[in-house]
Design goal:
Length: 328
């Protein structure tokens, strides 16, 4: 029994959140960027594929335009887009409480007046969009403007046009923008053309080459001096590595390259390959020259396995389960 390997072309690798390859979907606008740049998609905002900083600018412009029409919804979008999951959960829980109290006790100062030094307000000050949301539903700053030591408050000023019951629903229904990693799949077939030899002067070092190498070694030395221990250097490197570019090379020299989060695993990579390629039989990943990854290691993240910021893996395919040498 022999393994069958058939590449589906045009290939369309998909992750669990079904991000299509740009090769397949003509509606996606690919920027003219480096193949190694980390790109994202956000279909709710537009059909483009951009780096994170471009998306951030687009979201900021969207919220600015939305604020002029509906400040409350704009604040909710900001809260759910620019903060961590724990900050979002905390702020929504507190804001729901404030809005519910205004609905149930509209005339009680205990619920319509919040001390600015309140621990909850202090936390909300560090959450994008949270305090502005309170201002958008009618809370105004009172006191403390002219006398720094004077205690200040957020006091709610009723507004007949503000439907607080609707605001309470919008805290749950309005969604923020979530970026999804764009796999940026590259499919490389074996090159059967003869390789042209480089001229002899290609291998000669120029003054520019030596200056570049000197700057690189100097910067690396200074960085290692600032981070003295090996453990500190590893923590620094891993903290700056959220994504990795994985190249998978098959025995017939076909290469597939895609981008992954370093929190994903070899098992995730294997599942994606199986979904998009006709592979019958088992296969394993090998890190050249001789590191074979076990089934246990396949459940570890790329970060834990040090498979970042880019790496090439070989695929070894099982030919016949009855033989002692099952992989090649």
């Amino acid at each position: 029994m022999f393994l069958t390997l058939k590449v589906i072309k045009p290939m369309e690798l998909r992750s669990d959140n079904r991000i299509p390859s740009a090769r397949k979907s003509p509606s996606i606008e690919l920027p003219k960027k480096s193949k190694s740049e980390i790109l994202f998609i956000c279909p709710e905002l537009d059909s483009g594929v951009h780096p994170k900083h471009v998306w951030k600018e687009k979201v900021i412009r969207y919220i600015a335009n939305k604020r002029a029409l509906d400040r409350v919804r704009a604040c909710i979008v900001a809260i759910k887009t620019f903060n961590s999951e724990s900050e979002i959960c905390y702020s929504l829980r507190v804001l729901r409480t404030y809005v519910s109290n205004l609905i149930e006790h509209p005339n009680e100062p205990k619920y319509t007046k919040i001390r600015s030094g309140n621990a909850c307000i202090q936390k909300l000050n560090n959450i994008v969009g949270a305090v502005e949301f309170l201002q958008a539903i009618g809370f105004k700053q009172v006191g403390g403007e002219n006398k720094p030591k004077e205690e200040s408050f957020l006091v709610h000023v009723p507004n007949d046009k503000m439907k607080l019951s609707q605001v309470l629903q919008e805290l749950d229904s309005v969604r923020g923008f979530t970026l999804s990693l764009f796999r940026n799949v590259v499919f490389i077939e074996p090159n059967t053309d003869p390789v042209a030899e480089e001229p002899d002067d290609f291998y000669e070092w120029t003054i520019e080459d030596m200056e570049r190498e000197y700057r690189y070694r100097t910067n690396r030395s200074e960085s290692n001096q600032r981070l003295r221990t090996k453990k500190m250097r590893e923590v620094y490197i891993k903290s700056d590595s959220d994504y990795t570019i994985i190249r998978v090379r098959f025995p017939d020299a076909i290469v597939i390259q895609a981008t992954f989060s370093t929190k994903e695993t070899l098992a995730d990579l294997k599942n994606i390959l199986r979904k998009n390629m006709e592979i019958s039989g088992k296969f394993m990943f090998v890190l050249p020259p001789s590191k074979w990854f076990t089934e246990i290691e396949e459940n570890k993240t790329f970060l834990e396995l040090d498979l970042f910021p880019s790496i090439t893996l070989l695929v070894r395919l099982q030919l016949d389960p009855s033989t002692s040498e099952q992989f090649y």
